[in-house]
Amino acid sequence: MYNKAVKQYLEYLKISGIQDIFIKPTIQIDKTELLKGLEEKYKNCTNCILHEKRTNFCYGNGNADAKLMIIGEGPGADEDKLGKVFVGRSGQLLTKMLSAIKLSREDVYIANIVKCRPPENRNPLPEEKSACLPYLDEQISVIQPELILMLGKVAAVTLLEIDQTLKAFREKTYNFRGIKTYVSYHPSALLRNPSWKKLAWIDLQKLQKDYFQ
């Protein structure tokens, strides 16, 4: 169908008297450098009150050409200190979770809904999420992942715009901007409730099947 449409269009151009078509060469974009530039551009952001007490702006880390993008909630104390996402206990557990499905941190790109730590690790406020979402939108546009894994209810409700329980979120996959999307437990929740790990493992196995198919 696609080839037929192209041939028809070329025939139309010929009939119209257009003999030559000039095609611009494809521009190769270095996604890693582009993301670094965006991080540098936004690192001094003051668009919400979270900047007042932050130590570091935590933009995101990982493979700019990742097939899988992971989206969490926001930085914790360790992340704020180091300026990296998922480096504390939750990050260590996330690394183990990825390893269990034959992936590493180098295979994925990880970001959060908000880029600065909310006080006492509270949930980010609506205005704080609104201030940061354009940054996340850009990250998704640059990386163009084939799969997204949203960790926790905050990320899922914010991006999917559906207010339901995490249990309900986990029951199916979603089409988020044309990207197949999974929702599972945030590692911090698994640290507080170890019995949920077996449920998270079910989610990860489904994701693994899609990733390696």
Number of domains: 1
CATH class: Alpha Beta
- Provide the low-confidence segments as ranges: none
H-E string = HHEEHHEHEHHEEHH
SS content category: alpha/beta
Q: What is the beta-strand fraction?
A: 5-15%
The helix content, as a percent range, equals: 40-55%
Strand order of the largest sheet: 1-3-2-4-6-5
- C-alpha Rg (nearest Å): 20 Å
CATH-scheme architecture: 3-Layer(aba) Sandwich
Largest sheet: 6 strands, mixed
Number of helices: 9
What are the key terms here?
213 residues, alpha/beta, Uracil-DNA Glycosylase, subunit E, 6-stranded mixed beta sheet, 9 helices, 6 strands, 12% strand
Descriptive notes:
- The protein is an alpha/beta fold and 213 residues long.
- The chain has one domain (33-212): Uracil-DNA Glycosylase, subunit E, CATH 3.40.470.10.
- The protein has nine helices and six strands.
- It has helices spanning 2-15, 31-42, 77-82, 89-100, 126-143, 153-160, 166-170, 187-192, 197-212; strands spanning 61-62, 68-72, 108-112, 147-151, 174-176, 179-184.
- Strands 1-3-2-4-6-5 form a six-stranded mixed beta sheet, with helices on both faces.
- The relative contact order is 0.14.
